[in-house]
Specification:
Distance between the termini: 27 Å
Radius of gyration: 19 Å
Number of domains: 2
Low-confidence stretches: none
Number of strands: 0
Order of helices and strands: HHH
Mean pLDDT: 84
Structural class: mainly alpha
Number of helices: 3
Shape: elongated
Largest sheet: none
């Protein structure tokens, strides 16, 4: 069973357990610090910001198809700025 996340250093939810296995002593504080740092990124450059746009740099259908072929042939891939995490 997966316990719900609790805002404590001793949270037992699965993501926090995995983070502790990766040597993070306090996953909840790491999450908060990451959020603070992301919030410092100006909206224009912050992909999590509602007003963020890709500056019309999305790949055309042809370029996307070329990337598919390049992946299959271990070739060079053109960066797609519209990909977010």
């Amino acid at each position: 069973m997966n316990d719900p996340h609790r805002q404590t250093a001793y949270c037992q939810c699965n993501p926090c357990k995995l983070d502790r296995e990766s040597n993070c002593l306090n996953p909840d504080e790491c999450i908060k610090e990451a959020k603070r740092r992301i919030d410092l990124i100006p909206p224009k450059l912050n992909p999590t910001h509602q007003g963020y746009h890709h500056g019309n740099l999305s790949l055309t259908r042809m370029r996307k198809d070329q990337n598919v072929r390049a992946r299959a042939e271990d070739g060079e891939i053109l960066f797609d700025s519209t990909v977010t995490f």
